[in-house]
Specification:
about 80% helix; mainly alpha; about 575 residues; about 0% strand
């Protein structure tokens, strides 16, 4: 081979190698582009779903307010402008907030739960659960809205910190329950007994605030995080009943604020807050409305940043110590926390500038008709539609349907929740008009709920107590509670004793209704076993803690087939 031929062959090899390299780079670029497109589509799909969920949650209230404004409760044009702008803020804010929570809070909570549980060190699990419960609850929007409505007499910061400590302690207890296998219903009986005993040492105004704090604490920030921790701890547990034990963590965390606020009242001798009505600042045009919302955002954004900062710092320390997340996951968590910050700031602005004053104004107007009697049916109507619109309620209904193997339909539990919450708000309106002590409702109600826990499948006990936190959602504290407060103030009642407590009643109603569904499921499952189980079939019954009852059913079926 001549020198020129050798050079040509070498050049051809180099050229082929360059072409392969270029082709490889192009494929990688195309794959990267496709990945980016998929990520873009995922983000767009995520926001689309969250906007739809937020619209379903907010629009029923908006339509009811619109109907009332055209009939018995006319609103000034400026107030209606602020309310409509509040609707937009709540939809956008809630969409960003829930999308960010799904991207950051849920995976972070699940990873923390699985990593700490996998360590096998109970003291570490307890400590981390306690810290997480405190820092997550501080940023809970429902709690912040409640704290701003208490008025003088109780420092909002002190109330928020007290509630947060209560959640931290009971999240610790809830996680230990999963690990050590403690029975949920006995814990519930014991802690609610403690709460009711403590309540007798305090004035009625503080009791209602304490029980309301348990309902508002388990909101859109706290629930995804603590349920993710529960799922992570349950996944690390190897026992057969870990699926059942993952439920009930939210229900236990709802008791913590009640007891902690009651203890605060006893220790400090607090008599209760004083009500300061929230009224809208009159505006002449949309420009003034935009200015009000801009000022509101400037006010609440630093508060939200201060509330989220501990979560971000804890996540950073956790990542440095465990390296649990990849680089891409860290970026996703960071973006999610940014979404949570922006969404929560917008949400609080819309709630406090638009919704709370509107609810107060409507309550004042309704109280002027027939001594407030129209408040009862309108409150029940609000309760029926608000709980149907809660996205978490939809998830809960699907969960009950899947866990019961279709024996209890999601529509059935949804109807039970709607009826229960409507009845609860109807009772709340009766209390506003008559001044009935809330303990005459709460004590029998929880006695029924706790008694039912002995007659329903184990899994329904956990789901029912979790559903109390789900039902007492954002719209309860942002609209329904201000409406009750305005009506009570107009009727000359004591807002702290008669209006507060409506969230507590809403949190109690689903515990009873879901357990009734569980009792119906148990009856259906027993009938289904007797009718359809043959000698060659098995039946999965969620109503029993072991396979003993299932084996008994199979043996009975064999015997019955033999007799036939």
């Amino acid at each position: 081979m001549t020198l020129s031929e050798l050079v040509v062959a070498l050049m051809q090899k180099i050229e082929a190698k360059i072409r392969r390299q270029i082709s490889r780079c192009l494929r990688q670029k195309m794959q990267l582009g496709a990945t980016r497109v998929k990520k873009r589509r995922y983000v767009l799909s995520l926001f689309k779903d969250k906007i739809i969920e937020s619209l379903k949650s907010v629009l029923p209230i908006a339509l009811i307010v619109l109907a009332l404004s055209f009939t018995i409760v006319p609103l000034p044009a400026g107030d209606m402008i602020l309310f409509v702008m509040g609707v937009v803020c709540l939809v956008v804010g809630m969409s960003l907030f829930t999308a960010g929570a799904e991207m950051s809070m849920q995976p972070l909570g699940s990873k923390i739960g699985s990593v700490t549980a996998g360590s096998g060190k109970i003291w570490l699990i307890a400590f981390v659960s306690f810290i997480i419960g405190i820092i997550v609850t501080i940023s809970e929007p429902d709690l912040q809205i409640l704290a701003t409505q208490v008025g003088e007499g109780i420092d909002p910061t002190l109330l928020i910190l007290t509630v947060s400590v209560g959640v931290g302690v009971f999240l610790l207890i809830a996680v230990l329950r999963i690990i050590l296998g403690w029975n949920l219903k006995y814990l519930m009986i014991g802690f609610y007994a403690v709460a009711f005993i403590l309540s007798f040492f305090l004035p009625e105004g503080f009791k209602t605030l304490a029980f309301d704090s348990g309902g508002v604490t388990t909101g859109p920030m706290t629930v995804p995080f603590i349920m993710s921790i529960g799922a992570g701890v349950s996944a690390a547990k190897t026992s057969a009943d870990n699926r059942d034990d993952s439920f009930g963590i939210t229900g236990l965390c709802s008791i913590g604020p009640i007891i902690s606020v009651l203890v605060l009242g006893i220790v400090m001798g607090v008599e209760g807050g004083s009500y300061i009505p929230s009224v809208m600042t009159p505006i002449a045009d949309t420009r003034e409305g935009i200015v009000q919302y801009a000022e509101g955002f400037a006010k609440y954004a630093p508060e939200v940043l201060a509330a989220l900062l501990p979560i971000a710092v804890f996540a950073l320390i956790f990542q440095i110590m465990t390296r649990a997340f990849t680089k891409q996951q860290v970026i996703r968590l960071t973006v999610g926390i940014v979404y949570v910050f922006v969404g929560l700031a917008i949400f609080l602005t819309g709630a406090n500038v638009g919704f709370v004053p509107t609810g107060t104004a409507i309550g004042y107007s309704l109280a002027g008709y027939f001594n407030g009697i129209p408040l009862i049916p309108i409150s029940m109507l609000l309760g029926y539609f608000i709980v149907k619109a809660e996205p978490s309620v939809y998830v809960l209904n699907k969960l009950v349907e899947s866990m019961s193997a279709g024996a209890i339909k999601g529509k059935t539990t949804g109807l039970g929740l709607s009826i229960g919450v409507a009845a609860a708000l109807g009772l709340a309106a009766v209390r506003i008009i008559t001044g009935l002590d809330i303990m005459w409702i709460l004590i029998p109600g929880y006695a029924i709920a706790l008694a039912l826990s002995f007659f329903v499948p184990k899994i329904f006990v956990g789901i029912s107590f979790d559903s109390g936190g789900v039902a007492s959602g954002t719209m309860m504290s942002a609209f329904v509670l201000p409406l009750c407060m305005g009506a009570c103030d107009a009727l000359g009642g004591n807002v702290m004793t008669d209006a507060f407590g409506c969230v507590a009643l809403v949190a109690m109603a689903p515990i009873i209704s879901i357990q009734i569904c569980g009792f119906v499921y148990r009856l259906k499952s027993e009938r289904r076993v007797r009718r359809f189980v043959s000698a060659s079939e098995t039946f999965i019954d969620y109503g029993y803690e072991s396979g003993e009852q299932k084996r008994t059913y199979v043996l009975k079926a064999k015997k019955e087939d033999g007799d036939k």
